[in-house]
Amino acid sequence: MAELVMVHGIGPEEETEVQLHGDWMRALARTLRDNGRAEQAARLEDGSVTAAMAHYRHLYAPYVPRDDWDVPLSAPMAATGEDVAADIIDNIQQHASDPAARAEAARALDELRADVGAEQGPTEPLRMFVAMLGRLGPVARSGFAALSSTGVFHLGQVAAYLNDETVREGAIEAVLSRVTPDTKAVLAHSLGTVVAYEALHRLEQPLPLLITFGSPLGLRSIIRRRLRPQPLRSPGHVKRWVNVADRDDFIVATLRLRTLFPDDDAVLERTRLVKNRNTNPHAAVEYLKHWQTVEPLAELL
Fold first, then answer.
1. Average pLDDT of the chain?
2. Beta carbons of 233 and 267 less than 8 angstroms apart
3. I want to staple 196 with a disulfide (CB 3.0 to 4.6 A). Which of 128, 159, 188, 227 is the partner?
4. Would the pLDDT of 221 be above 80?
């Protein structure tokens, strides 16, 4: 019976539903209060507005590396992880605000294309991509691939969602089990935007608002090729879709998501741009600090 449903993205396996729920709700309430909406903030804090986190991290348990040398992914999953890593590096090359970061990413792609050959083992190229990601400034500052095992697990979560139907269906069910006719808004972050996109296409009742932030929905080689359904279009029962991006968020595939959708799609609005902390531009709570992200929800509340 949640009026507000939140959908998390990639992250540590030990990050619990309760922890994520609390972090997001505190960030939302703080932003509402900072922008003159103290009454709405209080309603979130005292539970007058019902909220739920669609949690599916436990589904990734089989893909947690045991150490920095372990890649617990099948060859197809490892290949998917490589494609995602290459897209992340290309994202930095395409739209990072720092010209030096863009040049660094371009050199990294050239180096990886030269070094990854058929003679490599099935998982060795993924290790190379993770190592390169960890050296790139925008990624290194965020801790996304601070350790090889961390980078492999983060990329493995995307690969598992796209390659393992048990993970995919479990994540989609985590969303649909929380969305009811009372739900007014879905907020989704990172890989959660992909899960929400696919889940909400199965929705059988109207949803007033979808807010996505830090979204990889436009990743060329992976998401746009494997997303269901194709071609890209807004879920039929969603009435309004607001997308938010930071140009230095390396997961964000495009700053112009709207251009990938049909011209007559009146649901998805033009992407709103924000500036998060340089140390972690992909963090969900960073996006939730911005009025551009929270304002559409404030209107509903």
1. 93
2. no
3. 188
4. no
Give mean pLDDT, residues 221-228: 83
Give the integer Cα–Cα distance in Å for 283 and 204.
31
CA 260 to chain centre: 17
Q: What is the structure's pLDDT at 301?
A: 82
Contact predicate 64/216, CB 8 Å: no
CB distance 72 to 64 below 8 Å: yes
DSSP state of 238: B
Asked whether the beta carbons of 149 and 123 are under 8 A apart, the reply is no
66 conformational bin, left if phi > 0, alpha if psi -120 to 50, beta if neither: alpha
- Residue found under tokens 């109207």: 206
pTM over 0.85: yes
Segment 269-273 long-range contacts (CB within 8 Å, at least 24 positions apart)? 269/240, 269/241, 269/242, 269/243, 271/243, 271/244, 271/245, 272/242, 272/243, 272/244, 272/245, 273/244, 273/245, 273/246, 273/247
pLDDT in tens, 84-128: 999 999 999 999 999 999 999 999 999 988 876 554 556 788 989
Identify the CA nearest to 290 among candidates 239, 245, 238, 241: 245
Tokens of 234: 């807004």
Residue 166 CB partners (closer than 8 Å, separation 6+): 59
